[in-house]
Request: fold
Amino acid sequence: MHWSRRDFAKLGVMGVAAHLAPRLNAQTPQRKMGVPTDGSSSVGSKTGVPTDGSSSVGSKTGYAVIGLGRIASHFMPGVRLTTNSVITGLVSGHRDKADRTAAEYGVPQSSIYNYDNFDEIANNKTIDAVYVALPNSMHAEYSIRAAKAGKHVLCEKPMATNVAECQAMIAACKAANVKLMIAYRCHYEPTNRRAIQLIRSGAIGQVQAIESAFGFDIAPGEWRLSKKLAGGGPLFDVGIYSLNACRYLTGEEPNRIAAFSSVIDRDGRFNEVEENVGWAMKFPSGIVASCNTTYGGSMEGYFRVHGSKGWIDVNPAFIYEGLHLRADCDGKPIDEPNTARDPSQFQAEAEHFSHCVQNGLEPQSPGEEGLRDLSYITMIYRSAGIAT
Ligand code: NDP
Reply:
């Protein structure tokens, strides 16, 4: 199955015109996006954001973290490493956990909220922004409530569970005049940015094809296996890394998508969401990409880019540390392990958003970027015959 011009025209109707393509694209001045144009590697740099990315405002951006789960436990130490951000509030359904976290981060008891009294953050002047680290289906509700409370929103990926929710989040943040960023940490990560820089500089010639994958063997009982809470299966959760990478590596938007999905392990885990998805994309320049994701087994998160004069292999590409770029650029070998340790990626992400908040700038991965991925996820599911 392929997508007609009409299908893609709908993306425009949804307010995601081509100029909202990933800010890492070829048309965007690279210096502006912090991708080095001089061929230098940003591997090992402290944050992967422009060196002028530090706050020009004296005070720090205060974050209330909503949902004290796994990803929050990486984000909060990352914030602690920044110079422009601080944890000032917590929102949790478990007061004991919130109390322990509050003690660790110096958050006063008066800045601990639950899901019922959350809207009272409107009255808390120490909270400038929220970090939404909830199950996917709760992203839209809490982002919109935060915007209505006058708080900037940093929301985890996937942005939401459908396009309409994404549009509502963007509209709410615009109406409240607050910033909205989707936490695509790879946009701020030096090894991913180095791959983009090599491609844009022509080091591997014309990109012809990309392969990418990411998956894991999911434990039973996870909210990720509930369609109501997750919206979908591994494509929403980890396949989105490959999808987003193909877009930032090419700097293009796919104009044809074809996909398949399957359930192999009939062990009860996949009664609501898919186990495997494989999809192919064609980009306007002619670049083709093939991607896989699974919840049925361990699958390295990587991408391999084949160009007319070489190749780039980043493996691992999407995890929190240990990233490794290897390339052959017209006969010149490159081998660049990234020694940065977790939570450096979360530090970079928080620093970028706080910098945008403090200086009135648009984040590099705004709501429109999350909306685009949700649009393509919807198309992939439709092509694979999965109801959305
Ligand atoms: P967890 O299950 O570890 O944490 C989610 C938290 O949300 C819970 O601890 C809980 O916090 C709160 N919560 C509120 N309602 C529910 C509910 N009904 N079921 C479960 N939890 C609930 O999830 P993750 O941290 O792994 O994922 C959270 C989000 O972050 C997801 O959208 C995911 O896609 C994204 N993510 C992003 C990653 C990245 O690298 N950028 C990596 C991993 C996840 P409390 O007890 O405090 O109320």
About this structure: Residues 1-58 have pLDDT under 50 and may be disordered.
